[in-house]
Amino acid sequence: MLRATRAADGTDASWVPYDRIDPDVITAFVAVEDRRFWEHHGIDARAVLRAAWRNVRARRVSSGASTITMQLARLLRPRGRSAAGKVAQALWALRLEAHVGKQRILEEYLNRVQLGQGTAGVGAASAAYFGASASELSLAQAALLAGIAHAPSRDNPHASPARARAARLLALRRLRRLGLTDSETVARARVEPLVVPPRVAPFLAPHFTTRVLAWSTADRRGAPIRTSLDLGLQMELEGEVRHTVDMLGDRGVRQAAAVVLDNASGEVLAWVGSPDFWSSDDGQTDMVMSPRQPGSALKPFLYGLAFDRGYTAATVLPDVPKAYPTATGPYAPRDYDRRFRGPVRAREALASSYNVPAVELASRLGAGALLQTLHLAGFASLGRDAEHYGLGLALGNGDVTLVELANGYRALANGGVWRPWTWRAGAAGEPRRVLSPLASALVLDILQDASARIPGFGVSTPFDFPFPVAVKTGTSRHFTDNWAVGATARFTVAVWAGNFSGQPMQGVSGVTGAGPLLHRAVMAASRRVSPGTLPSPESLGAERVAVCRLSGLRATDACARLDEWFAPGTAPTRADDWERGGVVVLPDEYAAWARNGAHPAGDGPTLPATRPGTRAVPATRAASLGISRFRILSPLDGDRYAIPVGVEARYATIGLRAAGPGAAHVTWTVDGVRHDGERWALVPGAHEIVAASARGDTARARVEVTP
After folding, report:
1. Which whole-number Å values give the CA distances from 165 to 16, 23, 124, 547, 632, in the listed order?
2. pTM (2 decimals)?
3. Which are the contacts of 562, defined by CB distance < 8 A and separation ≥ 6?
4. Neighbours of 130 (CB within 10 A)
């Protein structure tokens, strides 16, 4: 039981089938309310005559003759207590008896009769007064319920214990007089306690159950509403959400949320809308269903659309300064670190979450096509047209909900097929195609690629798992919302951290904010649901082809190479011609970027251009672009770093990475001192970092760190 609540009319009801109602309850009600119930056909003629005679003698209505069937008729079709109302009840009673069996009439009556304290039916009353089920009551408890039915608001044990005892005794004496019990049993029943100490009603998964009750508007006659929630996982994630805000409170993070979906069924396994439902500070705000801007978390759908349009994971996209005309003026996107990287393959652009290539890709495909794909992926919160969002839609400038985000990634894990999520156990929905299976598999493969993620997020992230997980983060403008999603083959987890008020966080990114919460949530879910294996591009017919790391073209002996997956017929046929005899020649669109030394506004080394529109770089200087044989990939020569305020020391580090022949075993020195390990803690000042390969080659990078 997650939660018990009152019906829309304020009553507390719990339907109990006839065969599960204790026989003593049935016997007591028949004895007290209608002792000839099993004999008459809806109207007790003898009781009517007796009541009429008593009323005449008393010159007022002092006795009634309503049978249980007539009382049920009044409960089903309420009417006044006038003579016309009595006649109508009698006619309905005759009709009920003609069409419905006695047991059904008793079941309906015993589940609808008012028994005080807002309870309707013996099930709710048994729980309220005795903390028990209506199937396991004593004779004294059954007699109490039957005794107070005539005046429940006045005689119930919470309102007046003395009246309740008197009503119970009257019912017990009626049972004894009719020969339905003996004197010894009545004597024991008289001294039995009226009620037991009340039990605290369950109120678990508060945001989730509040939503379910709002959605369950149909009359269920008090029957249990069966949900899909995994209570153990729910309780664990509630603790993790509270832990997250405790850890990040000093950095301006006051709220967090999480949701977990089963991929096969779409069932909700866990739903945490805020750290504390009872908090006076917007605790009942439910971030699982509250639309906010998701930042880069929408990029996978853009790249999936591109893969279905003929782009590949090796397609090179420009990460260079560019302004796009809009109705409100030029739009010039920037990456998170405000650097430009020149030519970037789609794999690295998505895995490292670069903004500039994503906007360029959205410009080529069209904001309308992206919006249509997002609608197919279930983002109904994006209710404006494509012109309203513009190219910023690629960077998540439209509001979506956390559960929409989780279900969208669930579609990727399900081969590009979207189905609605559900809170009901065993429910299902109609499917629709969002992306092709291979495009979805390519996106998932990239989101699992820790190496492709390094340029944007470094070596140490919370996204290392002992099983396949496709991970993406997102941060909205001004650091007000932090998102992270993790999709396995069997379940999808989405988390959020931030502030309901929209107050910015302080130096919190996807790696340091929502990322650790995602890691703990995924691991918690994996202990209850086997993660499985995500679909691979190879299993869907993709071919693996060697390409040049810089150009994405077919590999030659002159370039640093890597293997990439391609849909059949999409692998590059053109051999790389960017790297020739130790010189790199870039296409025209990178000329301005190259003149600025591969950094914005001249921030970094300036390398000479050979002619307008091209970029020829001697191999000895190509390390600045990350394209020489043995080279340092991180940090780059000329990098400048700032230590963020309030960031833990373990996060204020940079990865040390090299590539090329002999890079499997690299010896690092920092300012002439040997450094062991793959990360270096930032220290204010100017530093020289040297990498020596196993073959004896060396590469250098000079960096500056400001406090």
Report:
1. 25, 21, 20, 89, 88
2. 0.74
3. 546, 547, 549
4. 22
